[in-house]
Amino acid sequence: GQQLNQSPQSMFIQEGEDVSMNCTSSSIFNTWLWYKQDPGEGPVLLIALYKAGELTSNGRLTAQFGITRKDSFLNISASIPSDVGIYFCAGQGNAGGTSYGKLTFGQGTILTVHP
Amino acid sequence: DAGVIQSPRHEVTEMGQEVTLRCKPISGHDYLFWYRQTMMRGLELLIYFNNNVPIDDSGMPEDRFSAKMPNASFSTLKIQPSEPRDSAVYFCASSPGPYTGELFFGEGSRLTVL
Hints:
Structural class of chain B: mainly beta
Structural class of chain A: mainly beta
Distance between the termini of chain B: 37 Å
Strand content of chain B: over 45%
Radius of gyration of chain A: 14 Å
Largest interface: A-B, 23 and 21 residues
Number of strands of chain A: 11
Number of helices of chain B: 0
Number of strands of chain B: 11
Oligomer: heterodimer
Mean pLDDT of chain B: 94
Distance between the termini of chain A: 40 Å
Low-confidence stretches of chain A: none
Mean pLDDT of chain A: 90
Largest sheet of chain A: 6 strands, mixed
Radius of gyration of chain B: 13 Å
Order of helices and strands of chain B: EEEEEEEEEEE
């Protein structure tokens, strides 16, 4: 089945620092998404990317859909304490394929921000 | 608008007992997903429905697991009999369609099987 390799597994940073995490896949995805999970909550969508090469920003977050459609990265600039949580990448397959409509998630990156 | 509602939030049971987890999706969402989250395996898709019909149940671990969606506003995930290795957080999520990839997750049901 499709698998996503997300790195790093965890990060410990100081408030104000920039953060970068990425995701790679052996399969092509038509959509890449980044979710954040706060403790005790379900994941929430941060950014969605729909076209190879697309670069999208949402406030301090920037994400890119790799040209090969097999990778994506997420950057967080000027981190703040509320950025703490688990960040997941997710990929969605092709329309008409058996994987259409469902997401495959990476293993997550645990982010800790020290004030 | 209310989000995805799951119950119970926490369940502790003994091995061999039947467990039923419940989910109410966001009104108007045609897709419903059940995910399981563990430290070892991360977020795994168990099954998903479109318009109340199961589309892909290839992630259901074994016959002890079953899921139903009798109508557009309710779904259940049942484990019978439960085993300690079923301990996990089970998430229900709904989506208005597959086109954007955005899933709206509930707060999860934390299951502990002793």
